[in-house]
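Handout, section B. The chain below has 310 residues.
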Amino acid sequence: MSVAAQDRPPMELPGYVPVYSGKVRDLYAPIDSATGQTQQDALLLVASDRISAYDYVLDSEIPDKGRVLTQMSLWWFEQFESLIPHHVLSTDVPSQVAGRALLVRRLPMVPVECIGRVYLTGSGLSEYQERGSVCGVQLPAGLLEASRLPEPIFTPTTKAPLGEHDAPMTYAQVAEEIGEALAARVKEATTAILARGGQIAAERGILIADTKVEFGLDHAAAQDGVPGLVLADEVLTPDSSRFWRAEHWEPGRTQRSYDKQYVRDWLTSSESGWDRHAGGPPPPLPADVVAATRATYIEAYEALTGKDFV
């Protein structure tokens, strides 16, 4: 992560105390006006316009990105209400962050990155080409870039500290980390969200290749001693997922996407002059890449929801 991004001070929000600043989102605890103490059951989740790639937070921001991610997540939370509860309490937030913040339940989080894949690409493709499997899941021989998998698979990674690289995990490692029963529920929920989201998106001309989801743990809703799962953070956005245009899908080549692949491609091009393996931070994005990325995020939102972005 670049120094400028890392040292950015938190926003001052009257009635809230900064708790944590991540790659893209910032967390604030509400202050109880009666006691002056921070509330322990709620958080203000603010989506910034920051963008990350290759485990770096870039110095360049994408205008309106935080609003797009928040509004898209809200739309998806509604689609999944019959599948899994979500963490949103209210959209009544301070005016400084209106449209890009949510008041949410404060919950302990599942300590692994829950990733589901239904098309083969990215790091999953690289691992498959080396081993014939992804995160211990054996796959059919002869698959290509962007090949559709027989069914959604669970390919978790570690949740590395900010600025460090996540490492692939097998299901057995997840079970060892959080327990077999909870691991089974996390796997089932991750693949179910991807499968259902993929059906909805396909009706709108979009393929969801893979996604990362976050789960909170609701101990009050435990069954057989296993906490209930709550869908948290963001869900099926261009930041957490790969979206492809269905009409252009063709295995064996790189796909046209609605996500931040545009940024990744520029960073690894000769134009950027950046060597991702050299250890230095990425350069700022040129204005045309910023504008094109913003347009891509808005296009994804409007294509999925059928709504105009305001």
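Note. Residues 112-248 form a domain with the D-amino Acid Aminotransferase; Chain A, domain 1 fold (CATH 3.30.470.20). Compare this with the example in section A.
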